Amino acid sequence: MWRDPGVSADSFYEIRPECTDVPISRFKIKAGKTLSARKWHAAFTPEGYLDIGKTLSRIYRGCHGELWLAGKHKGVHPSIRGEVWEFLLGCYDPKSTFEERDQIRHRRRMQYATLKEECRQLFPLIGSGRFVTAPVVTEDGHPIQDPLVLKETNSAKGLDVHHQDNNNHSSRIATNSLQKVTDKIVVQWLLTLHQIGLDVVRTDRTLVFYEKQENLSKLWDVLAVYAWVESQFLIISVLEFVKRGNFRCTESSVGVTSQLNVLASVTQVIDPKLHNHLDNLGGGDYLFAFRMLMVLFRREFSFCDSLYLWEMMWALEYDPDLFLMYEMPESASEKAVGSKGKSKSIRQCGKYEREFLKSGSKNASQAPLPISVFLVASVLKDKSSKLLQEARGLDDVVKAKKP
């Protein structure tokens, strides 16, 4: 029987021609399998209600063990990823209408514009089309008059950018207008701006998209505004991290340490020989997998495959209560604390979340382990033979993890 070999999705994420060491993408767009624009739009009623259960099953149908490594899952067509991800990440309630989502979208954009202007008042470079990669204030709040800082804030650096607010003098006064800052929250935020700038410069440098200064500066604006909001509403951010389980803190563990402990236990069960080998190499704490869990495999796979893997995990872990968590965190907390049964429809949940619900262990104080832990275990299992034969140190383990 003839099978569609699929079409590479790399054309949607153009790579700079001089970058020759980029991993080859395994994800293929396959007719009848990959969630297409036609199937996506057909999942909505005339009013705009989305059949999220059917959509999720189309994304991860056929998901078994290590098959994701071979790119044999369905996935989402790149042309509709933005729309689909808004639901997978809980930005919108599937039970909302087109009109309701338009209202939410407009309100959020207005909120972002307000917050961005608030940040611009604190540091005029926000929204100017430029960004900084050097510290702008000292830890005690004094502005830094370093030549590099002045160059970044007072000059367009010869780049053909369109200033987002057409405020040509904003960058000239960004540093010069700063007085000694006494508010500790503002100081901490200003101290992060150059760190964000460094991360922005390093982000996916192989993509043509990030060759444009305009795109880099927009990313910097978004992250800078997010950092400002997070500094003021840290509790809300922590709640989300706890929900995801990525930065959960307990008396015995901080951050992903607990996930690494589980990874060690899982590997010991599915491949005890490999676990013993890693332990003998000094990797029994599995810290070599720290980066994989923190950035969700972004450095192990191509950009295209990373997006594909993320949407697979989000679909499998999908919880219909995510929207409540963003829009009405108080209501979501009360629902979690007061709920004794499975009030949510299991059909509306992702496969991984559904199995966790069926286990009867869902409660307010316990969150399921991220599926990424088991995916790392799958990678190690898949590379077991190579690791056992070739790994003579932890550096070899890190190199062998790459496909």
UniProtKB/TrEMBL annotation:
UniProt feature coiled coil, ranges: none
PROSITE patterns linked to this entry: TBC_RABGAP
Rab-GAP TBC domain location: 75-317
GO MF, one annotated term: GTPase activator activity
UniProt cross-references to Gene3D superfamilies, sorted A to Z: Ypt/Rab-GAP domain of gyp1p, domain 3 (1.10.472.80)
PANTHER family: RAB-GAP TBC DOMAIN-CONTAINING PROTEIN (PTHR22957:SF597), TBC1 DOMAIN FAMILY MEMBER GTPASE-ACTIVATING PROTEIN (PTHR22957)
Protein name: Rab-GAP TBC domain-containing protein
Species per Swiss-Prot/TrEMBL record: Vigna mungo (Black gram)
